[in-house]
Please model this.
Amino acid sequence: MEKRVDTTLFIGKNYIEYEQLDSTQLELERLIENQNLAEGTVVTCKHQFNGKGLAENTWSSEAGKNITMSLLLKPKTILIKEQFIISQIIALSIYDFLKEISIENIQIKWPNDILINEKKVAGVIIKNSVSQQKIHQSIIGIGINVNQSQFDDELKNATSIYIQQNQFYNIFELQSSLLQKIEQYYLKIKGGERKKIQEEYVNKLFKYKEFSLFYDNINKNEFIGKIMGTDDIGRLVLMSNNELKYFQMKEIKYL
Model:
């Protein structure tokens, strides 16, 4: 079943919807292997039973109640060392999309989890392919909890738009709005607004310029640090003991 999203120039114009999938990301990868898909292709489904999360985690989603989709971009002007800008625009797109439906207290938890009142409402996973030192294509998996009202016990830090707003939403309408936001930010990259995007992202970071407790997965110790932002390659920059420290994903976690 295919639908067109008419609020965008190209993102979502090739819109492929399934009743159920193991993973929208895996399905998009399978489709790419067999055909030359247009940039902006979206794969979505009502029930995803083996969704992918960061660091080999899974993304659990109740059937028919949430946004589960993957998007194909071909940002061939972005250098490998600049690839974090893709993560930033997706996080900002989700942030603005939530703001548009009057949700408050939104934060971006580095690198690209989205929180409402410090509870996770959305997750993003990005798989980039490179060619000649540039990003050849990006497969962007997005999961947003929309109408789900209950979560498994192990997901104590999860929330949904329904829980926050006490009302149900039309999934397809929300998804259309989100795709429009993504396209707007993506075009800003092409328009040379990268520095502005990076500043906007940092200003919306969870615990930005606050002292917080972290765990260093490399040195196996807890420490107090203040988030100062991110560097050009997407590392989290912390101030600890009057020294700047830089962390890649998986090297650090919040406590």
Remarks:
- The mean pLDDT is 91.
- The chain has two domains: 15-203, 211-254.
- Residues 62 and 148 are 7 Å apart (CA to CA).
- The first strand starts at residue 15 and ends at 21.
